[in-house]
Design brief:
The strands form 2 sheets. The protein has a 5-stranded antiparallel beta sheet, with helices on one face. A two-stranded parallel sheet has the order 1-5. 67% of the residues lie in helices and 15% in strands. The protein has 10 helices and 7 strands. Residues 1-25 and 89-97 have low confidence and may be disordered. By secondary structure, it is α+β, with helices and mostly antiparallel strands. It is elongated. The protein has helices at 2-25, 30-40, 42-62, 118-184, 190-224, 249-253, 257-277, 307-314, 333-399, 405-440; strands at 27-28, 68-83, 88-89, 97-114, 234-235, 283-297, 317-325.
Length: 441
């Protein structure tokens, strides 16, 4: 029986270790979270579709240089008189009642020779619109990366708070056990034991609350990732403490996506001004075609020939010509289109200025927050060290009978608050540093 019990314990231990390894294997790193979010985020996927739309628009404008070819085939039925003298259809000449069908066919090709550079400017505008769409996609990726990183570190913060609360529960249990022994030996009053038990219950409540908050933050992160469920989802620990990155605004602004997108939009708007201005110029296009027809007389008059002779030989003719269209007056539409396009250029210029100001404010705020967070971390660590020394002295006084349990619990509470502040300062600094890194990556 003893061997069987030992075997069962070994199997249980093995299963627990396997389960722990499985849970650890399911932990997501920060890079994995960011990569998954960027590939499943709906806004990013929508912006990727916008890039495909811009590519199609660019391809369409480029293809406007190609000739346009149309083929037509028609069939008409006529019920009237036929002039047998001239061999033509003439309703004004009396004759026998001759019904007929009239088949027509044509192939026409049209090609622009000069259009006031409209197609060229369309291509330019669509190319810059594509560049803007690509930059906007990159900006969306950076935004979601910052959002995921902040939430990820927020989860780690609450997990650390839960660890602190768990350590406090373990310490409270030890103090309750020690107080119980002292009460049993008659060295301490029963009230001290009850105070210790009350503190232990309060610490257990804090642990439950911390675990619940950590679970809630994990659920929020899973939702940001668009995971189907948060069940079994957990994250790995990281340690990114170190030197705070120094961000150079001028260097960042040269390649920052929002600024690149605004610049591309300005160039696209300028090209649209030229597209609108091209309507002032004449257009010249070349047109050529092949036309034919066949007349079928239901009374079997074959004077015009058979289908092959008419449609493929006798009635076949080629047409080629140049057409010039000169704009004279179109109710001021061209003028107003140009003015509207110029106002769009000014609007995009304001958008660029706003993007530069926003980037400057974001960098300044991020650097200031990181600097303040580092100072808070240093101060919090000093407070932890001081509270630890105070708690040690108070513990010695309590053990020597020169202090009450109230003083000991108060010292413990101050030490706990100092450690919690230190944890908060640590992760606040990590969050601020991570945000700064996004401007340098």
């Amino acid at each position: 029986m003893a061997m069987k019990a030992n075997y069962m314990k070994a199997m249980l231990l093995t299963a627990m270790l396997a389960c722990a390894a499985s849970v650890s294997a399911q932990q997501w790193t920060l890079d994995q979270c960011i990569e998954y979010a960027t590939s499943h985020n709906i806004d990013i996927r929508r912006r990727a579709l916008q890039i495909q739309q811009r590519e199609l628009a660019l391809n369409t404008s480029r293809n406007e240089w190609l000739p346009e070819v149309d083929a037509q085939l028609g069939e008409q039925f006529s019920f009237g008189n036929y002039n047998s003298t001239t061999g033509s259809m003439d309703g004004s000449v009396a004759g026998s009642n001759n019904d007929l069908s009239y088949t027509t066919g044509s192939v026409t090709a049209t090609m622009n020779i000069f259009d006031g550079m409209k197609v060229k400017n369309k291509v330019t505008a669509n190319r810059f619109s594509l560049d803007a769409a690509v930059a906007n996609l990159e900006k969306a990726r950076k935004d979601i990366g910052i959002q995921i990183a902040v939430q990820y570190l927020q989860c780690l913060y609450y997990r650390s708070m839960a660890d602190e609360a768990r350590a406090q529960v373990e310490l409270s249990c030890e103090m309750v056990n020690r107080a119980r022994v002292l009460v049993d030996e008659g060295k301490r009053p029963m009230s001290e034991l009850k105070d210790m038990e009350a503190q232990a219950a309060n610490d257990e409540y804090s642990l439950t609350n911390a675990n619940g908050q950590y679970t809630l933050e994990l659920t929020t992160l899973a939702q940001l990732l668009n995971l189907p469920t948060a069940e079994g989802f957990d994250i790995a620990d990281i340690n990114e403490e170190g030197e705070t990155p120094v961000v150079n605004y001028e260097k960042v602004a040269e390649s920052w996506p929002s600024i690149m997108a605004a610049k591309a939009q300005i160039e696209a708007s300028k090209a649209q001004v030229n597209v609108a201005r091209s309507d002032y110029y004449p257009t010249l296009y070349l047109q050529g075609g092949l036309r034919t027809f066949y007349v079928n007389f239901f009374h079997r008059d074959m004077r015009w020939g058979s289908w092959n002779k008419q449609f493929l030989d006798k009635n076949m003719n080629e047409v080629i010509g140049l057409h010039l269209k000169v704009p004279i007056f179109n109710r001021f539409q061209t003028r107003n289109n140009i003015r509207s396009a110029k106002m769009d250029v000014m609007n995009q210029s304001l958008a660029l200025e706003e993007a530069r100001l926003n980037l400057s404010k974001e960098i300044q705020t991020a650097q200031t927050n990181a600097h303040v967070a580092r100072q808070k971390q240093a101060s919090a660590q000093k407070a932890v060290d001081a509270a630890a020394v105070s708690l040690s002295y108070e513990q010695e006084r309590y053990d020597a009978g020169r202090s009450s349990v109230f003083d000991l619990l108060q010292a413990r509470q101050k030490h706990l608050e100092a450690r919690q502040d230190a944890v908060q300062a640590k992760y606040e600094l990590m969050i601020r540093q991570r945000i700064l890194k996004f401007y340098t990556e």
